[in-house]
Amino acid sequence: MRILITSDTHGRLENFREAVRRTRPFGLLVHAGDVEGDEDRISGLAQCETIMVRGNNDFFSFLNAEREFMIGALKVFLTHGTAYHVSTGPEWLLEEACSRGADIVIFGHTHRPMIEHSGGLTILNPGSLSYPRQEGRRPSYIVMETDESGGAEYRVEYL
Question: Who's near 138: CB < 8 A, 6+ residues apart?
């Protein structure tokens, strides 16, 4: 299954639409927050199961701040990351993800893409499609591919 992982769209959906177009077909959309009122539009554009959380700019959202779910046999912990002070580093978030028995932790907030592996934990941050902050400042997202044996591959894509 192909999974589109995004974050920090901040009410600007032009690049989100392009990421959807480039990634189709996919069976799941994961959004790590800061949708700024676009929950329904994002779900409608994805046209598949959508899992998203509230970010620090989602002031009037009824989304959960955190979610745990399964992708095949992999346990995923999803959060925007502000409660774990990810702007100063992912250490607190990684500790929390490990305490929950997660295989994958997905977060946003920093607007910088990241794919890392640490002690059996996969750490994913898709960056931002609207306001990228990494060197080169290219809008980014992650595509995750799972196979029938339960394996997963990840890649950062840029617009």
Answer: 132, 158, 159
